[in-house]
Amino acid sequence: MHTNPTLPLPPLPGPDAALFLDIDGTLLDLARRPELVVVPAELPGLLRQISASLDGALALVTGRDLPSVDGIGQGSRPFDGLSVAAEHGALIRQVGDAAPVGSLPEPLPAWRQAADDFGARHEKAVVEQKRFGIVLHVREAPEAADEARALIESFIPEGQGHFRAVPAHAAVELRPVMADKGRVLLRLMEGAPFAGRQPVFIGDDVTDEDGMAAARSLGGFGYHVGRDFGGETANVRAWLAEMAKRLTQRVA
Q1: Catalytic residues
Q2: pLDDT at 88 over 90
Q3: What is the pTM of this model?
């Protein structure tokens, strides 16, 4: 991926910003399988630099669970030291401590078994079992997409209104209704170090739209990689690099 120097990117936030960033498809290029994403060497340091300049008001807001976040980069834990809202905000980790957001339901054992059975039938599909959800990835098994969607949707009635099916990039996910990126942004904005700042959310997927809307509802900004960054994660990283430079110059 290459940056487009002629593409007008969003204005850079100031030192009063609170930055919320999706990971896959926003900071990192999507891969055939979640564990195969590549982390550009400069990215972890760049994010830590921005976080320090914002007094810690930077959070990664991702659909991944915490072990998956820590496993990015072949287990190198590239995002250690940063706040993470995992499983669409079902779990928040700040300064090393992870806690669930309220009392959320977990998938029934029968659902987990049915998902594993789906994976056994479709060897190229990936079944991602999270604490609060299940994802069926069909990027390498597109012929199984309809079956995956139907399976996840079949769990909803038994979930008694506590779960919903959410489409994603070549995947379909079961997750609690109360776990979404908008709710977790609003929750984080209530406390330090985010409170009183202007929220900026960047994402690329339908699951990120809630976060964008929540940021705008607080007088901030919600940016979409496709609409605002030309569909290139490299443009997001270049924008972040300029933000880091601007913030450093202000301090100097």
Answers
A1: 22
A2: yes
A3: 0.90
